[in-house]
Structure formats: C-alpha cells, structure tokens
C-alpha cells in the first residue's frame, strides 16, 4: 500500500440495518456454506469446548436453556474454507523479495508451529513469481523456486494452517497487466496446475494490490481471464480477489463478481490513517515527515474505521460473499502503544463484521514476532490474540 486515497467515501450503516439486510439474504446465505451462522455467532463462543452437549429429550425442551453453539462446530473439516479462516498472519518480506533473504527474512519451518500454537489458523504467503518466470512464452516458472514454495506450503499444512498463496509484486505498474495479460495468465496456469491436487486448505489469491494505473473495468477483464485459467484445473478451490487502488476497501464495489462461482472470497487491505501506519517507511514518499504521529483511539478515529468497515460489510451482505481483511498493520517506527491500540481496534472491528483477518506481518518491519529475541512482540500479539 503506497498512498492514501483522497476520495475515500464513508458510508454509515448501523448494526440494526445490517442485521435486517442479512435476514433478507438468509436463504441465499445458508446456501453459501452456513455463512449466516458465523455472522450471528457471539465471539465469546470461540473458546474451545470439550464436547458437544447431548440433545435434550423432547419433553425437556421448554425447560432447557438454549446452548451456545460451540465454535468447534464452525471449524469442522466439512465447514467451508472461509468459515474456518479467522485469524491469520502474513509471512511478508520473504518470498516476495526479489530473492528470498534479500529483505532480511527467510522462512523457517519452526515459524509455523509457533504461529499455530499462538492461535492463528491461517497464513498468507506473498510470492514474487514474476522474478522466477521466463520473459517470453511459455513463461516457464523456475522449478527450483516451485520446489521452495512447495516446501514452505507443506510446512504450513503440516502445522494445520490454511495457507493463502498469491502473486505479489508483479510488474512495477499494474497497467502492464492490462496491456499484456498473457504472461500473468500463463503464470497462473502453471501455479494452478502445479497445486491442483493440493488440499482445499491451499487458497489462491490472484493478485496483490492492483494499483492506480489500471482502471476498474480493465482490472475486471484481467480477473476474468485469471479466474478462467485457474478454474480449468481447480474448479472448486477458494480464490481471493480484491479491487484496485491497492485493494482499497472502497473499490470493492467496482469488482465484477461472477455469479456462478461458489468459491470466491473478496479481500481488502486497511492501513488508514496511512500517515500513522506508514510513518518513516522508506517506500512511502514523504513518510519521514509523519514520524511521531500517534493513534489514540479517540471517538473520531474509531468512528472512521467503523464507518469504513460498515461499508465493506454492507457490500459483502449485498453480494453474499465472504470478505478477507488480507493486510493491516502499523510500521515499527510508530510508537508501540499506538500500534497496539490501532491493531487491537482494527482486529476487533474485523471480528465484529466476521471478516477473517491477516496481520501484516510476521517478523519484519511490522513484525508481531521478534526473530532475534525468538519471542513474540507481546503488545502486538496481545492486540491480535487477546
Ligand atoms: C503491500 C506491499 C508490501 C508492503 C505492505 C505495507 O502489501 O506489497 O510490500 O510492505 O503493503 O506497506
């Protein structure tokens, strides 16, 4: 994410309206893998429960208090993948660097057990396939790079984590993709074929953060082509798509969602206020001037986030689609207390709206884990997994 969109629209929707809207959609939503259940599950039901309660006999029904549905009911293997994804973390700065290690981060097997044991249930792994594919047809992907991705992906699955792989840092400007999509289509054709026999816990995300050089309609045309090639070999795999302007929340409304595809999730990234989350980040122009900016959790600051998330929740209900908050985080140059406050609030808002979320990121500049100390950053971990 590199800029703040100046024309962000806030759209207010109170929770009563949202519930009404959801009720109207009940039938369709039930069809879509019991998503409704998730919307109404109180978060307090998330505590693991030892066993399911016995069914009361018919005559006892009136006297029996309604039993909260245990969270485990939503994470049985037969539940859909989106329903099983709740709390995730991005393994950023590793496989999306020009070469792994060049940005100081190399993925180790031990991270996945640490991540799982901390309470995350999925990881998102950004990958720069672009740097490992031929420049001319058939745009072959380097088998050694595939082998490394296989290894990392295998570690995630072994640790019982759902894993999203994406195409990250493809081309310097997304306009390139609109002008000549065939290379990216060919790359996705290879990725999709390569992983076609992997379990459904492997999720594909078509493209990280299409920028502001591609229009919404150009982007929709690219998405259709990518989805076609993926569906040739993976008709039922969960696929994640987001809008332009770096996956901005208020661009979702321009996405064209194919009506007949039951395995799609939408995604957005959230880094507002950008001058707080990206202060001192050398890839964000002018960010030195933002150093010292705090996030105090004032009513006004919170209302902005809640309004933005309401807008996404309403769009999700209208389109009957699960929505993933695929990235959010505040860079390490901001003060830790503000980072923890902001992170906790964004996480709470996402959970309130039943958006699975993935923190940006594990152990680099935004890191929730400190590799030198081999320990969690407790303030951030507590903000994410209280
Ligand atoms: C996007 C960029 C990534 C950056 C992050 C936070 O995902 O691709 O490189 O670190 O946003 O700015």
Briefly characterize the structure.
By secondary structure, the protein is of the alpha/beta class. The protein contains 14 helices and ten strands. The longest helix is centred in the C-terminal third of the chain and has 21 residues, at 299-319.
Can you characterise this structure?
The chain is α/β, with parallel strands linked by helices. Helix content is 36%, strand content 11%. The protein contains 14 helices and 10 strands. It has helices at residues 15-24, 26-31, 35-40, 81-84, 110-118, 143-158, 175-179, 182-194, 216-233, 244-247, 274-277, 299-319, 336-352, 378-384, and strands at residues 87-90, 122-125, 162-166, 202-205, 239-242, 264-270, 323-328, 357-359, 369-370, 375-376. The strands form 2 sheets. An 8-stranded parallel sheet has the order 7-6-5-4-3-2-1-8. Helix 12 runs parallel beside helix 13 (336-352) and helix 13 (336-352) packs parallel to helix 14 (378-384). It is globular, with a radius of gyration of 21 Å. Residues 2-75 have low confidence and may be disordered. Alpha-D-glucopyranose binds at residues 1, 208-209, 327, 360.
What brief labels describe this structure?
386 residues; alpha/beta; 8-stranded parallel beta sheet; two-stranded antiparallel ribbon; 36% helix; 11% strand; disordered N terminus; binds alpha-D-glucopyranose
| Rg from Cα | 21 Å
Q: If you average the pLDDT, what whole number results?
A: 85
Small molecules in complex: alpha-D-glucopyranose
Helix content: 25-40%
Gap between N and C termini? 27 Å
Secondary-structure class: alpha/beta
Beta-strand residue percentage: 5-15%
State the low-pLDDT regions, or none: 2-75
- Envelope shape: globular
Count of individual helical segments: 14
Biggest sheet statistics:
8 strands, parallel
DSSP strand tally: 10
N-to-C SSE string, H for helix and E for strand: HHHHEHEHEHHEHEHEHHEHEEEH
Going across the biggest sheet, name each strand in turn.
Answer: 7-6-5-4-3-2-1-8
């Amino acid at each position: 994410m590199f800029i703040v969109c100046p024309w962000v629209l806030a759209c207010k929707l109170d929770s009563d309206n949202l519930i009404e809207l959801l009720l109207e959609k009940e039938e369709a939503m039930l069809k879509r893998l019991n998503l409704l259940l998730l919307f109404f599950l109180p978060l307090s039901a998330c505590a693991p429960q030892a066993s399911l309660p016995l069914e009361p006999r018919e005559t006892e029904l009136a006297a029996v208090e309604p039993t909260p549905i245990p969270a485990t009911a939503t994470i049985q293997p037969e539940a859909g993948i989106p329903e099983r994804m709740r709390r995730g973390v991005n393994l950023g700065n590793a496989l999306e660097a020009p070469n792994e290690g060049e940005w100081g981060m190399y993925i180790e097997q031990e991270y996945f057990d640490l991540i799982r044991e901390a309470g995350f249930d999925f990881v998102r792994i950004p990958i720069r396939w672009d740097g490992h594919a031929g420049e001319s047809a058939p745009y072959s992907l380097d088998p050694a790079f595939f082998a490394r991705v296989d290894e990392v992906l295998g570690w995630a699955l072994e640790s019982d984590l759902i894993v999203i792989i994406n195409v990250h840092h493809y081309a310097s400007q997304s306009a390139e993709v609109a002008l000549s999509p065939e290379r990216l289509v060919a790359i996705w054709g290879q990725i999709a074929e390569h992983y076609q026999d992997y379990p459904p816990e492997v999720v594909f995300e078509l493209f990280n953060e299409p920028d502001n050089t591609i229009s919404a309609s150009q982007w929709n045309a690219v998405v259709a082509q990518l989805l076609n090639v993926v569906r040739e070999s993976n008709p039922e795999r969960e696929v994640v798509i987001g809008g332009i302007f770096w996956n901005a929340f208020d661009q979702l409304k321009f996405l064209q969602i194919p009506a007949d595809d039951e395995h799609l999730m939408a995604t957005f990234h959230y880094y507002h206020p950008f001058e707080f989350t990206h202060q001192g980040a050398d890839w964000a122009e002018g960010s030195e001037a933002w150093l010292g900016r705090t996030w105090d959790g004032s009513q006004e600051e919170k209302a902005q986030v809640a309004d933005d998330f309401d807008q996404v929740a309403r769009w999700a209900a209208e389109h009957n689609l699960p929505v993933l908050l695929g990235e959010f985080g505040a860079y390490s140059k901001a003060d830790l207390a503000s980072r923890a406050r902001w992170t906790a609030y964004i996480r709470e808002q996402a959970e309130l709206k039943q958006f699975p979320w993935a923190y940006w990121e594990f152990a680099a500049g935004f890191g929730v884990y400190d590799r030198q100390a081999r320990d969690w950053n407790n303030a951030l971990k507590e903000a994410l997994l209280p």
